[in-house]
């Protein structure tokens, strides 16, 4: 299903996106050396409930997972890249942490992820991974607009990731979003320009470039959810929800301008 949102629903999408961004910013500030992943999950739950929103994850039960996800946020550390299920782990200096959050408010969902290094250490490999996905995300957003095609976004993202020297996995990528978290169209992280669905104003997309340092192969944890690099190398995603507008694309998952 591909949804095209009317102006009223787009307003709700902006509200949901700002909430996601504000929660992620708060959680990033609290995610320091010594923080437990289960505490991050607990804080996410509190903020979602207090905002009158609903988690898109806690009851999420797709075919590729094992039962309901059961948590309010994805927390992926180091070699974990996607669907990181929070567990009893204490963050250490130099850990590469990804926080991925999707919530629904007013019947519309928004989805975003950010990756950062915990503590004072700055491992060069981790810095490079994060930078590449952030640049790829910016390129994908720049390629989006009315009349463009999904392949244009995929090509823009893939060009940045390939030029940075990273293998690209196409099993998981970006996706449509709206009244539900995951919708068509799928947005692969590499592709051919001029191909695929033509973008229209009112379409929401969650763009999610992600890479692993030296492989494109994933393995699944015993928890049935967490996806890791097959080689144990470090990984990083970056994600924003965008709305296609009459003259381009608007990022919805940015913090409120009134906050620092």
From TrEMBL:
A divalent metal cation 2 binds at residues 111, 175, 208, 239. The keyword Protease applies. Its EC number is 3.4.11.18. A divalent metal cation 1 binds at residues 100, 111, 239. Residues 14-246 form the Peptidase M24 domain. Removes the N-terminal methionine from nascent proteins. The N-terminal methionine is often cleaved when the second residue in the primary sequence is small and uncharged (Met-Ala-, Cys, Gly, Pro, Ser, Thr, or Val). Requires deformylation of the N(alpha)-formylated initiator methionine before it can be hydrolyzed. NCBIfam families: met_pdase_I (TIGR00500). Belongs to the peptidase M24A family. Methionine aminopeptidase type 1 subfamily. This is Methionine aminopeptidase. It comes from Streptomyces peucetius.
């Amino acid at each position: 299903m591909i949804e095209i949102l009317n102006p009223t629903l787009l307003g709700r999408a902006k509200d949901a996106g700002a909430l996601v961004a504000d929660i992620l910013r708060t959680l990033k500030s609290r995610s320091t050396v010594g923080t437990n992943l289960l505490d991050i999950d607990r804080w996410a739950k509190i903020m979602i409930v207090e905002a009158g929103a609903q988690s898109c994850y806690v009851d999420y039960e797709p075919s590729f997972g094992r039962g309901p996800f059961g948590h309010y946020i994805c927390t992926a550390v180091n070699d974990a890249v996607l669907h990181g299920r929070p567990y009893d782990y204490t963050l250490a200096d130099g850990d590469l942490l990804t926080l991925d959050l999707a919530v629904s408010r007013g019947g519309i969902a928004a989805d975003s992820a950010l990756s950062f290094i915990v503590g004072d250490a700055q491992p060069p490999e981790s810095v490079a991974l994060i930078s590449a996905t952030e640049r790829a995300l910016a390129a994908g957003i720049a390629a989006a607009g009315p009349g463009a095609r999904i392949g244009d976004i995929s090509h823009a993202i893939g060009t940045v990731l390939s030029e940075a020297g990273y293998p690209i996995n196409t099993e998981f990528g970006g996706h449509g979003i709206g009244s539900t978290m995951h919708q068509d169209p799928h947005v692969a992280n590499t592709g051919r320009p001029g191909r695929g669905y033509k973008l229209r104003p009112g379409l929401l997309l969650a763009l999610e470039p992600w890479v692993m340092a030296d492989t494109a192969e994933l393995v699944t944890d015993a928890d049935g959810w967490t996806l890791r690099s097959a080689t144990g190398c470090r990984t990083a995603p970056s994600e924003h929800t965008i709305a296609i507008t009459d003259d381009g694309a608007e990022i919805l998952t940015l913090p409120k301008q009134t906050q620092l």
